[in-house]
Amino acid sequence: MGGDTFSPDVNGSARFAEHLASGLAARGHEVHVVAPSSKLPTGAHTEVYDGQEITVHRLYSWRWYPHDWLTFALPWRIKQNSARIIDEVKPDVVHFQSHIIIGRGLSDEAKKRGIRIVGTNHVMPENMLAFTGIPKFLQNWAIGLAWAAARRSFIRAEAVSAPTRRAADFFEKATGIGNVYAISCGINVDNYVPDFTPRSENRILFVGRVAGEKQIDVLLKAVQLLPADLDVKLEIVGGGDQLKNLQAMAVQLGIGDRTTFTGYVTEEELRRAYTRSSVFAMPSIAELQSIATMEALASGLPVVAADAMALPHLVHDDENGYLFTPGDAQDLADKLERILRLPQDELDTFKNASLSVVAAHDIQRTLTTFEHLYRGEPVTDPAVVPPSAPGSKPGPDRVS
User: Fold this and answer.
1) Which of 163, 170, 228, 258 is the 20 to 30 A CA-CA neighbour of 40?
2) How does pLDDT run across 207-234, given as a tens digit for each residue?
3) Nearest Cα to 234, choosing from 211, 208, 209, 202?
4) Glycosyltransferase subfamily 4-like N-terminal domain: which residues (predicted)?
5) Is this model's pTM higher than 0.85 or not?
């Protein structure tokens, strides 16, 4: 398995690769991961994730300074490194999580050796523009080049997946590669603790990278618009390049004393943050799935999310939360207020609906699906509760 980001990096792709690797190891597979060094020692080392031992091949990497933490393996050495590792490990299958550097090298060398290849896309080039320094008038050209590069790597794979149907459709349109599987990243729902006791305070939670595409500024404005009698507290968990700007914005909006920016936290602290919250807010417009939203659902939280990309797969209007118009702080505030004023019995209905939705995204189902793909076996698409229009009943959706 290989990708351009992996633990200790904190993002959806890294977390998915970590849980997939440890879950496969728990099922008895020998798992090797190729990843940037990320300030860790280079070379092959045994690392432990979710109690499972994984061999991680850390490649010498450089910091990408436009980004607040990202490192990258050296592109001019990736073919040599990929060939060396593949020849040492002799894998039955290569699964790459991004095509930019490591996935490109692994897929190329695996193809030469006739090794089965599976590729999963977690990348939207549009989200990376802020860290490239490319002038605006050249950005559409750059996006086209990025998707063309993605096609060159993913076309080598016998099977290609994305985390949701919308993400798969977006990828197919951008690359021209068809028959992309929609396979949930999945989470271990048993790790999260729902709390149905009445809340003593109104606490809104956001979890994720503190970056521009997450549109946390919209959330801050929405909290400022909420009625004073709700006495709302806002907790923002995560780090990123916009942290200082958003802290200053919270003070300017007059909600600095009610807003907590925790930065990065441990898994245990994160689970406690979910459990103690009243509602989860996800204003992002660029989620290919949103592991944080799934974690919130597994914690029994109602969710208010932007009606954008893949979030409607997880948030079903007036069932387990509400969708709001992306970028509209007033609409977000209105939907948050609606949740915070629900009578306890109606709130419990929303919370139970969240648990029902996330049940379809259990990591065990994801592991089984990828095992089938690794072996070249047929994959059966299970029925998953989809987004539904207001007033309609949920129906089946094609999600592997």
Assistant:
1) 163
2) 998 988 899 999 999 999 999 999 999 9
3) 202
4) 10-190
5) no
